[in-house]
Every structure is written in C-alpha cells, then in structure tokens.
Amino acid sequence: MGMILTAILVLLALALIFGAILGYAAIRFKVDGDPIVDQINALLPQTQCGQCGHPGCKPYAQGIANGGEPINKCPPGGESTIQALADLLDVEVLPLDAEHGEEKARTVAYIREAECIGCTKCIQACPVDAILGAAKQMHTVIIDECTGCDLCVEPCPVDCIDMVPLPTTPQNWKWDYPLSGETLIATDAQRGAA
Amino acid sequence: MQAAPIKIWDIPGGIHPAEHKHESTQRGLEVMPLPARLVLPLQQHIGARSEPVVAVGDQVLKGQLLAEATGLVSCPLHAPTSGIVTAIGPAPFPHASGLEEWAITLDSDGEDKWTDLEPIADYQSLEPATLLDMIRLAGISGMGGAGFPTSAKLKARPEQKIFTLIINGTECEPYITADDTAMRYKAAEIVAGIEILMHILHPADVLIGIEDNKPEAIAAMRAAVGDRAMRVIEFPTKYPSGGEKQLIQILTGKEVPSGGLPADIGMVCQNIGTLLAVHDAVLLGQPLIKRITTLTGDALTRPTNVEALIGTPIRDLLQFAGLQPDKLYRLVMGGPMMGFTLQSLDAPILKTSNCLLAGSIEELPPPPVAQPCIRCGLCSEACPASLLPQQLHWFALGKEHDQLKRLNLFDCIECGCCSYVCPSSIPLVQYYRASKAEIRALDLQTHKADHSKQRFEHRQARLQRETEQKEMDRKVRAEKAARIKAAKEAAQPSETETSAEATTDVTRIEAHKPTGLTPEQKQLKIAAATAQMALKKAQKQIAANPDNVDLQAQVPELEQACEQAQRTFDEAMGEVSVKAPAPPSAAGADDAKRLKIEAAMARASLKKAERAAGDSPTEEQEKEIYALREQVAVADARLPKDEAPRKPLDESLKKAKLDAAMAKAALKKAERAQSENGEDAALQEEIERCRAQLSDALGVLEQAEAKASQLETSQQRAEKKPVDETTLQLKTDMATAKASFKEAERAVQEARENNADTGPAETELANSREVLDKAAKAFAAHMASKETN
C-alpha cells in the first residue's frame, strides 16, 4: 500500500513539475500571430477582391488555415497560387473552383475620365488606394498600384470604369518556351517544321 | 609595356565557332550618309525610360538634348543631327518581341548643324565627379551589349576602390568586327578615353584584353598606348571570352561572385565603343549620337563597318551595304550566338547595336528539330559559367523555379555554348531565357502582392484610425457639453443658495408675471407669505425657548406685520381675506427676518435698477436708483439693531461689505462723471460726500470684521441648516426657469429693437414666466413646509 502511495506521489510530483515547465514554456516562447496564416497570406495575390467569398486575402488565409477552406477559390492567383498553396500545406492540387470565377489575364481598372462625375465612390471601394481624385473632380487610376480586383466597377454610378488587360511592352514581354518538338525523331524533322 | 610576361588564365568550357570576321573588315571604317529620318527610342539602355523634353514640330540642332534621364539608372538622349521632331510615340523598335516602343522621330534638315559644344581639353583639372557628370549628361551607356548607363557603372560601388580597369577589346562573337575596326582606326581616341577613365578611377592597373585573332587591332593599340601605364594583353581566341566575367577571369584569374558585380572585386570593365564615346563626350563635348556598327551577312554585297548615327533605320544601313532582299532569310541584331532576330527593317539601330547580320538561308538555317536529351554532358563541358545546363533544362521543363534558382540559373550569360554543342539540338538557351523571364515576372508579382498588402494594411489602419479619431472627438465634445451643463447647474444653485438677493430676485421676477396677479399683488402675496413664515418661526423659537423676553416682545410686532401684509395683499386682490390672521403669539425674531428680507429685496431691486441703467442712466432711472438706495439704506439702518442680538454676525459683516462696495461704486461713478464733465462744484461735493460714505462704510466693515472674528467660534448658527436634496432640486429648477425667462426677455427685447414680430418671443416669455412662477411657488411652499416642521 505504501509503495503504491509513493508511486502516485512521485508521479504527481513529476506531473506538477512538467506541467510547470510546459506552462512556463508556453508563456516564454509564445508565438505572436499565426505563422501559418501569414505564410498562406504571403502566397495569395493580395488583390483583396473578395471573389473567394472572404472579405480579403487574409480572411481567406485564415479560412484555409483554420476553417478547412479549399485552396482553389482564388481566381486572380490561379493555378500557380493553388500549386504554391498545395506545396505549402502538403495537400492535393485542386482545379480552380469555377464557382468563384475564372483565371483571367491581369487587368487594371481604367476610368473613362470624360464620363467621371467625381462621386468618389470608387475611391472608397478601392482596397489599395489606387484611385486618385476628389469630390466633383475627375478621378484616375494609378495603374502601377491597381491590383485589378474590379471592386471599383460596381459602385460607379455612371459605369465609366473598364477593366482593361495590361498591354505587353518590350519591358514586360517574356521569352516563350520553345515549342516542344523534342519528342520527334530526326526523320520527322520535316513534319515538325511544316 | 610588352616587357613583362603576362599570365593568361583560362575559362572553363567555351567553343570555337567559325569566325566570319574577315568579310566585314575589308573596307575599313565607312561613314554612313545622313539618313532622311531618324527614330530614337526612349529606352535604349537598362533602367528607366527617358523623358522627352522636346515637342512635335520643334526644330533641334545636332547634339541637342531630346529626352532627359528619369532616375539614377537612366540615360538622356540627344539629337544625332539637326532637323524637326515629327513624332513622339510608339515606333518600330529593335527587340526580340517585335513590339513597338516610344520613340522620338526626327526628320533631318540635311544641314547637320551642331549645337554649341563645350569641349574640355584640360580634363585633368576637373574633379572625377564632374567628369562622371559629363559622361552621364552625354547619354553614354554600355555599348557592348546590355546598355547599362556608364556613369552608374563607374560608381556602382562607391565604397569599393577600383584597382583594375579592364578594357574589353575581345569581341569574341563571330561576324562582329565593330570594336576591331574601332581599334584599328581610332586607337588614339580609345587610349584618350582610357586616360579619362583612369583620371576618374585612379586604378592601379589597366588591362586591355584583345583576342589573338585581331593582330591589326593589337598592333594599333600597342602603338597608341606607347609607354603609358596600360597593358595590351593578347590571349587565345575562344568564345565567349568577351563576356565581362569571363574576360576578368582570363586576365586576372579572379571570378566575380554569383549575383555580384565586377566592382565587388575591385574591377570595372569597359567596352571599346564606350571609351570612344567617353573621348567624344569629354574632349569634343559631343554627346553619344553615333557608333560603329558592323553590317555583314551573305545577303549583303558589300559587308562593312560604318560609323552611323544612333536612330538610323536598319533598312538604310542595309541598303548602304548592298542588301539583296531575295537572299535575306533572317536578320539578326547582334551576333549569331547571342543576337536576336528582327522582324522589321524599319526599326533603328540603338546605342547598343554593334552588328546587323543579314543572313541567307544557308548561313542561318532554321534550327533543327530538337530531340530528347541523351544526357551526354557536352553542355556542361561547354558552359563557361560552370553551370549544369542539362539539369537546368529538366527543371525548366518542369517549371521548378526553386530548383532553377538553386542551380544558379541567373548566373547563365545566355552565351549559347550549350545549345551549340548539343547533339540533340535542344534550344537550351531559349528554355533558360523563358524560365528567367517567368521567374522575374513571378518575383515582380510577389513584390507587387507585398506592396498591395502593405497598401491595404495601411489603408485599413488609416480607416481604423479615422474611426477612432471620430469616436474620440465625439466623446470629447460630449464631455465638454456635460461639463458646461454641470458648471451651469452648479453655478445657479449656489447663487440662489448663497445670496438672499437671488431668491428675492426670483420673487421679483415673479412679480412681473401677469399670471393672474399683477406684479404688486404678487409682491404683496409673497410679502404676506414671508411674514407668516417669520411669525411661525418666531413662535416655534418661543416654544423652544419660553423665557426669552426679547423674542416674546417681538412676536406681537411680527403678528401685526403679518396681518398687515396679508391684508394689503387681500385688498390688492380685491377681496376680503377670510384667512385666519396670524396667531396672536407671534415672536420678534420673525420681524427681524422680515426686515432682513425687505432689506435684501430692496438691495436686489437696487441692483437690478443699476444694471438696467448701465453706464448711461436716464434721469428716470437715476431717480429710481436713488429711491431704491434710500430704501436700502433705510432697511439696512433698521436691520442691524433688530438683528444684532440673534443674527449671525456674518450677516452684518456682509452688509458692511456691501455698503462699502456700494459707497466705492458711487464714488467711482461720481469721479467718472467729473472726468467726463470737467470741474463742477456740485460733482465735487458729491465726490466728497461719497468719500465720506466710503470711509464710514469701511469703518463699519472693519468693526464688523473684528466682531466676526471674535464671535466666530461662539457663534450658534441656529438658522443654518444643511440644504437637503429637495431644496437643492427646487432651487435648481427655479434657477433654470429664471435663466430661460431671462433669455425670453432678451429675445423680446431684441425683437422689439429689430422691429420684428414679437409674438413668438412673447409667447415664449409668457411660457417661461409660468414655469418660473411654478418653480418659485414650489420652492416657497417647500420652504414653508420646512419651516413648519
């Protein structure tokens, strides 16, 4: 009986000691914020467009991290974002959920300035302050800051905002990958060239 | 300085393609005739696009500034000839994409007239910074290939001393002979350019590297250098020894670190063409407007080297060299290894265009179809940067960007050796270029996403801040309003509490109210009520203190007063009072109280009259005031002796103070009148009288004060009771009502003054009177009930 009591007391003491250590460690090495949310957020395109159904990129990141949201709800990010998220979270790559939109070429908002009435509604809607203007003054979009989220299109009372694809210039032009003709054998060269 | 044996190092890999250099070196250096139209793209260099400073239609002179640099890494642009600016906008551009680029189009006027130049012969006297500025303003960018602004390159690492200046006369790529020609025919100018750079950089060593396939150039350079502190180094021909990093390795044995610049190891490498431009800029004062370009290829009948103006259309150049359009299969800008195919002959040559290769189909056949990689490893052997081209190829196919970066894809100089040696004809370089472009684009995208995130977060923070600020402002305003309200409330009750006048003031105001009673009636009523109250009080005191003879003697007096007041009131009301007269056993204390109240009332009305009269009293007002003063004096005179035995001393003290103050005021007034009206006997007399009064009053005050201090401790303040809640509340109500009444009065007054409709104001006044009346009644009733209790 005495031995059992001793054992229980010893175990209790150990439990208390380790509990204290763990409790201390939890305070001493506390991590501020949620690192996984930040990591996911870093992979998202930060358009803050809300197409995923969340009010911004960070809430979607939180949804993925905590709420088990699927990783395929971000049309602006497209395949590459899904791929990156899959790599980070070690989950299956999913095709983009068409319900939330399709992956489109990057666009920027363009205000047809002659039609702008200066209502400032688009300025309030822009999540990144990319629209410049004042009440009753013409507004314009700072193209370099625009993320192409198209949140400004809907509030415009005169529908003078277009989403236009960015033009290709010598500065942003990219070399293409070579056509993959390398599965052909030498005697098929004529066919490949034709 | 060919004495010391010079150690030559080797680079890994490299190839020996057919040179094809002799075709274009046979005709020496020709000068291209002035073209009719020049196209000057605004982006001829690495960095920010330059900004036009001319407008369409402007007449410009040769060498005049057309566009200025827009940042540290940018380059200005000058007019290569005199003429008229005919267009600024997108124009054909020599680029692998075939896309257009913004350009200034200049129509030559044929005069080729220079603008004013400022050549500097004695550049040694100038600061290096001044010379760097001259180089920058002359629009010089690297003329060998990439086109990095030269001044920025020379000061890329300001903290790092440059020990070795390397002059790149290698020109290792097949077909190109522009630098070769420059060295052959312009060696003296090149050496002068080197000396300018030496003056800027003060290097310990100057190495001029030339491949051994250019003996004429080597000879010319050696002759030009003479015994200057420069070394012309000849080394075996091998492609790509002309790459900056490769040349440094060949001449010094040192390697530029991955991702670094030659300046990191204390070296700077400059191209022959750049040195010519530096010479022109400093010694001739000419900006960079021309260059030597090789025109070669099977499709040209007379391949040659020309000194052409920047912006000369390629079509003009090729026609000058005898273009055979039917033989032209592919036009390449640059060499066959690293150049790119042009899609249009309309594009101009740039500051970086060292060669135009107009190849026939035999010369530049279409690339054979690529076959699968057999992992032979020839590419790795050929790579001058010691990379693993075949691994890079696989990862590029799989778009594994992390792996590509890990394998130092960005150290690839895209020399094309791996593609050249590939037995499967895999276009390896094209994979690397595409992968690099994609990685850069993704990096840019990530960067942009970070930037957007930051902006978004800042915006959120700003909105948050604004909301908080608004909330705080609202709170502050609410607090302020509450404070003001509290202060008002606190001020008014205390007023009514401390001064007897205030209460009587209220009754006085009430007296003015036409709420069924005339003011006189009202006053009488109140007087009656007060008399009754005093009587009751006296009776109570007698009950408590039966053997106080004084008190008992006063009671009948009080009774009488009370009765009289009631009667006068009843008379005023026009009806015979049926109310019971005051009890017969009234006590004298009440009389004192009544007197006191009368005195207070008199004082209050005096005050009011004075206030109404202001600084410029009318005669009538003065009379009134005088009468009131009399009253006050009478009341006061009666007061002390009646009160003295039982009244708390502070009352008499207060009165004395008041008298003194009044006397002072009267004196002041008299004095003021005198100063206004000049000497006047009557006024003087008045002043004297006032002074006497004042001194009397002060004497009384002193006495009273002395008494007060004597008796303070033994004083029994039977009358003073703590003010209970209800009293306070009622007083507050009354004060508020009084305030609103006063306001209404003011409003009526204003309306009258402005000849406006006084109706609403008067209604308001009547209302507030009613309210005030009620409040006063309630207060009086409360006080009465308190007294009886």
In short:
In chain A, 36% of the residues lie in helices and 7% in strands. Chain A starts with a helix and ends with a helix. By secondary structure, chain A is mostly helical.
Would you kindly provide a written description of the structure presented here, covering whatever features stand out?
- The complex is a heterodimer of chains A (194) and B (789).
- Chain A contains 6 helices and 4 strands, in the order ααααβαβββα.
- Chain A is mainly alpha-helical and 194 residues long.
- Among the domains of chain A are: 35-100, 3-methyladenine DNA Glycosylase II, Chain A, domain 3; 105-167, Alpha-Beta Plaits.
- Chain A has a two-stranded antiparallel sheet with strand order 1-4. In chain A, strands 2-3 form a two-stranded antiparallel sheet.
- In chain A, α2 packs across α3.
- Helix content of chain B is 52%, strand content 10%.
- The longest helix of chain B has 71 residues, at 428-498.
- Chain B is built from 23 helices and 17 strands.
- In chain B, strands 1-14-13-17-15-16 form a 6-stranded mixed sheet, with helices on both faces.
- Chain B is an alpha/beta fold and 789 residues long.
- Classes of the chains: A mainly alpha (194), B alpha/beta (789).
- Chain B: Residues 446-506, 706-769 are annotated as: Disordered.
- Chain B: It comes from Halopseudomonas xinjiangensis.
- Chain B: Residues 489-504 have a biased composition (Low complexity).
